[in-house]
Write a structure and sequence with these properties.
Radius of gyration: 23 Å
Number of strands: 34
CATH superfamily of the largest domain: TolB, C-terminal domain
Strand content: over 45%
Largest sheet: 5 strands, antiparallel
């Protein structure tokens, strides 16, 4: 398999001048160490590259040191530590075994989906509650979607790499699944038949580094997604799934807007915005955006509509919240009812009727951790290569 496209553009400049020039591309932010090297991830390896700080130039070719540590986060933060003159250390995430379980409204486990434990990361139930797609990782740099029959307790692989997948979203009729993957270097959006047959279809592929689907419109003809822009941060966009397929901005302000989901009747859009200084849940009419209402009162994330459109669910700090709403003749929200969230739940999804939860629960309550590996003689290794 050819190397995947590199992700981040690395620039160099002076703190005394706004001028900058591109130095290279890499999998994340480099770390500078003496005697004049940049350490960074490239194509699955941790490499050292000679750097002439006076001329702001790279010298020669990079030298591979070890297999790359855990991939950086979406901002490119380094997953290694190094002193200017000392050794270097890098982190590797230790996968924690988890299982898919049923939870009641109080957070108690009421049953388990009869599947083997695995490195599950997230689960998302279908609109009819009979199936779910689950993200299952095989390494820090690889994960795929699996389709689960919740009644039979069977699971079939749904995507086939390479790279990672994230944020699967079901179409309203349960016939399609949209998701994001970084297999091309950036996070682009794809769609595939929920039956598993046929090839996936690219939906949004652009120069924006991060793009994640968040919802379909009620008629299934448009996909709402979020992407990060250079000047406006996280924005909400939409793209028609027929016709020319040209994406258009839906919410694009100086603040971050994310996790937009449409009410079952398609007339109201719930989303997250940090315009108040923290992330809160708002609802506005769709598509006109003539009015906007604050729903949460103490922060919120990941909103979801009940299947009849009369209640909203969202996450708030270490709790989950339910809010009764009215959408006719106008919008009106009640007071959020908070319930504590279990500490051993990695991620979960409330079922469409809000009757119970489907959760990823750590086996034995173990917490995720990372191993720190120290390399003390890496400079001497450079001289032998």
């Amino acid at each position: 398999m050819p190397p995947r496209e590199l992700q981040f553009s690395i620039y160099v400049g002076s703190i005394d001048s706004p001028k900058r020039e591109k130095l290279m591309t890499a999998d994340g932010t480099p770390v500078y160490v003496e005697p004049g090297y940049l350490l960074y991830g490239r194509n699955g390896r941790l490499v050292a590259h000679r750097f002439d700080a006076a001329r702001r130039k790279l010298v020669g070719e990079p030298v591979a040191l070890v297999d790359e540590p855990d991939r950086t986060d979406f901002l490119g933060s380094p997953s290694l530590v190094a002193g200017l003159r000392g050794g270097l250390g890098y982190y590797r995430r230790v996968p924690v075994q988890s299982e898919i379980a049923w939870l009641d409204a109080g957070g108690s486990v009421t049953g388990r989906v009869p599947l083997p434990a695995g490195a599950y990361e997230a689960v998302h139930a279908s609109p009819d509650g009979r199936r779910a797609v689950v993200i299952r990782s095989t390494s820090a740099a690889a994960s795929d979607l699996w389709m689960v029959d919740l009644a039979r307790g069977t699971m079939n692989r749904f995507t086939f790499g390479p790279g990672r997948v994230d944020r699967p979203v079901w179409s309203p009729d349960g016939s399609r699944v949209a998701y994001s993957s970084d297999r091309g270097g950036r996070w682009d959006i794809y769609e595939k038949s929920a039956g598993g047959g046929g090839a996936e279809t690219p939906i949004v592929s652009s120069g924006a580094l991060l793009k994640y689907p968040s919802a379909y419109t009620s008629d299934g003809r448009t996909l709402v997604f979020e992407q990060i822009g250079e000047r406006t941060g996280w924005d909400v966009w939409q793209v028609p799934l027929d016709g020319d397929g040209k994406p258009q901005p839906l919410l694009a302000t100086p603040y971050d807007e994310q996790a937009a989901v449409l009410s079952p009747d398609g007339k109201w859009l719930a989303f997250v915005s940090n315009e108040s200084g923290r992330s809160e849940i708002y609802v506005q009419d769709y598509p006109n955006a003539a009015e906007k209402h604050l729903v949460s009162v103490a922060g919120g994330a990941v909103p979801q509509w009940r299947s009849d459109g009369r209640e909203l669910f969202f996450v708030s700090a270490n709790s989950v919240a339910f809010v009764e709403v009215e959408t006719k003749p106008g919008f009106r929200a009640g007071t959020p009812r908070l319930r504590p969230m279990r500490s051993d739940v990695v991620q979960g999804d409330v079922m469409p009727d809000f009757g119970r939860f489907l959760g990823i629960v750590r086996v034995g309550g173990a917490a995720e951790n990372s191993d720190l590996t120290m390399v003390l003689n890496w400079r001497s290794d450079l001289g032998r290569r």
